[in-house]
TrEMBL record:
Taxonomic source organism: Candidatus Roizmanbacteria bacterium CG_4_10_14_3_um_filter_33_21
Protein name: Integrase catalytic domain-containing protein
GO molecular function term, any single one: nucleic acid binding
Domain Integrase catalytic: 184-350
Short name of any one Pfam family annotated for the protein: rve_3
Record-linked Gene3D superfamilies: Ribonuclease H-like superfamily/Ribonuclease H (3.30.420.10)
Any single GO BP term: DNA integration
Superkingdom assignment: Bacteria
Amino acid sequence: MSSGKLSNAGSYSITYNLPYSFYKFVKAYPMGEISSTAQLRLGAIEFFYQIRNVSVVCKSFKISRKSFYKWRLRYEVSGKRLSSLENISKAPKTKRETVLDFKTELDIKHIREKYIRLGKVKLQKLFKDEYGCYVSQNHISYVIQKYNLYFDPVTAKRIRSKKIKGRGHKKLRINEVNPNDYLSPTKPFFFTTDSIVLYLPYGIKRYIITAVEHEKKIAYARSYNSKSSLSAFDFLMRLSVLVDGKIAAILSDNGSEFAKYFEEACKRLNIIHIYSRVHTPKDNPVCERFNRTLQEEFMETDEYFEPYLTESNLVRANERLTEWLIFYNFKRPHQTLDYRSPFEYYHYKFFEKQKLSPMYPT
């Protein structure tokens, strides 16, 4: 038997996800300087040196024979360097280069500076009218990025950074899924959420984040000084406590407050985050209607709420809002719920047996 690094490392059991000898090897030879993928490949190779059985190695590490032979060949040809087990860049060795000549590039630059607010489609037509030749939209974009020819370079840079960060991350849209598929007896709630911006005297701005259950109409709202993802994080944690952690999914728009820390809260609470389509408020009609109800039945009638919003500490404002939410959830009749309150409807549907009237032929 070969004298690999795993020699005399111990017994192997098919019941382990990974061989016990692999864990002993990792403990004896720390591999913190390489990635977890490279550690897995090294463990498979060294385990093969011990047992000399490719089938057992592939079954225990759940890899194909082709992949194992590829890793082993690369490892041995490199002189058993650990870095050879890392993923190799898949970028092409020869990249495309622009064929735009310098004169045309300067002409595009000139016409872009002249019409700084026009897009590349309109600039393409103006370029053909003025210079009598065709230029592609990609070449126009290339010149704009090369010379940073933006009306507002700071905003353009922020938008580009946001697009780069979002590459490869596909959002789950409400028009692509059925939220009811995510509901279960242990997690029966699907909440829709939104935010309201309030403009008060002397340039004061306050924000109210709202949420309402899609079917049962159980609602929650809270006011904040800033519309940040940290505020949305706090809101979602409070909402989860309110319903005893039984939220299966939540729908929001694409606002910045529903990113970063809000997504972190969704991961912690095991909540599926669904997004509405861009500039499509009809994807979230239930919460939009609740926002109108909140403004008409509470904010426009409560004489203390707006003065409390001007305070830096929003404790008293949230106390007034909570009092109205208690009325909304426990007493206010809802037409869509057969004139029951949300909690009456929830108790009626999930805890009482519905007594259906028999149907008779007319």
